[in-house]
Amino acid sequence: MKKLTSVLIVLVLVVGALCAFAACDTPQDKDKPATVMNVALNPEVEFVLDGNGKVVSVNALNEDGNLIITATVFEGKTGEEAAKLFVEIAHEMGFLVSGNAGIENNDLSIQISGDTSDINKLYNDVKAEVESYFTEENIQAKVAQVEAITREEIEKLVAQAQPYIEQAKLEALSNMELLEQLYESRKETCEMYSQELKNAYYNAKAAAMDTAKIQALKTQMGEKFDANLQKLFDTYTKALDDIEAKRIEYLVAPESTYQTKLAEFRAKKLELLQKRQELAEMDSSSLEFTIKLTALNTLETAVQLAETMLIQAGNAANASLDLLKSAVTSGYNAIVSAIESAQVKIADHMDAIMQAQEEEVPKFAAEFESNYASAVEQAKADWEAMKNSLKPTEEPQK
């Protein structure tokens, strides 16, 4: 069994591969996104930093990450301050404990990527801040360098957040433009403390952009957009309505299997973190500590099972949605094919399409906010309730 103080900190440092990602971009505006830093300790959080090394956006990469980002404000902090604040919150909530041997800790990984004027300085500053905190809290840490993140991985992050961007356009973006796209996407969902809500937003936005495209072409075509095309369009929009209704039913509604399993997972995780906090304050040589440690190990297994069931519920729901997506895709392709058969060159109307999509964005955002308002508020309230149930740990035993 690991000792309480044997926490491994893995810092992913982009050095040799820096030019592979940020390859000689012209000097960027210091206020624009320049670096991505992912911090993971089971809770996983993504920080986007600007050219000044300040955090400009924060995004949870898993459900536990939502617990971390609801606890405080990270924006405006330097990268090293954000990393230190992350481990401080993780410590307060029981993800990390100090003062007793015997309780296993998760490994902490900090992944730094993107373009920065001095990646070595950022690495050393982050390392110094985190090591200083662990020293203060009687937690020893090992720092290791591993392989750098690639541009392709950043492209995948952007594609996940913006499924409506064509791959060719994605690949044509400069490295700084790519990071800016990621930043803009994160801003849109920064107040959604639910992974499935963010997925719902991005997928619904993709559908809205496709619909705006067809509407723009309909306007441009005039009478050429005949009854047959209108029938295809009606079938397509009905498929969109169906999948949106099912998304809410399967993943967002409080009574859905996914939300039920999420609540069960959250309850088990809360119990585990509270027990870890209790053990951190006990004498590790006592019989009571040994008994509670055994119970903790059993509880960890229960948490893992609850997480597995949550993942399975999400996978099952999304598999059902994928079947509906095929109808949406078929409907969209049928419309495009019919438009092309009418001797209409879609490329000739790109200005009108782009304008329609631009005008659709605020309308879509307002409609989504209205439809999902209660779910967004509930997700935040659930994590805040969990946070408030986790009292800060006592002064660690030296």
Q: How does this structure look, described?
A:
- The structure is a single chain.
- The protein is of the alpha/beta class.
- It folds into 2 domains: 7-171, no CATH class; 196-393, no CATH class.
- It is built from 12 helices and 6 strands.
- It has helices at 18-22, 63-69, 79-92, 119-136, 151-161, 167-172, 175-188, 195-221, 227-252, 257-280, 287-341, 350-389; strands spanning 6-12, 33-40, 44-50, 55-60, 108-114, 140-146.
- Strands 4-3-2-5-1-6 form a 6-stranded mixed beta sheet, sandwiched between helices.
- A hairpin with a 4-residue loop joins β3 (44-50) and β4 (55-60).
- α8 runs antiparallel to α9 (227-252).
- The longest helix is centred in the C-terminal third of the chain and has 55 residues, at 287-341.
How big is the Rg? 24 Å
Instruction: Spell out the helices and strands N to C.
Output: EHEEEHHEHEHHHHHHHH
Structural class based on helices, strands and sheet pairing: alpha/beta
User: Separation of termini?
Assistant: 21 Å
Q: Strand order across the biggest sheet?
A: 4-3-2-5-1-6
Strand content: 5-15%
Dominant shape: globular
Provide a count of the helices: 12
Tell me, rounded to a whole number, the average pLDDT.
84
Q: Biggest β-sheet, characterized? A: 6 strands, mixed
List how many beta strands DSSP finds. Answer: 6
Number of domains: 2
- Quaternary organization: single chain
What percent of the residues sit in helical stretches (DSSP H or I)? 55-70%
Identify low-pLDDT runs.
1-27, 393-398
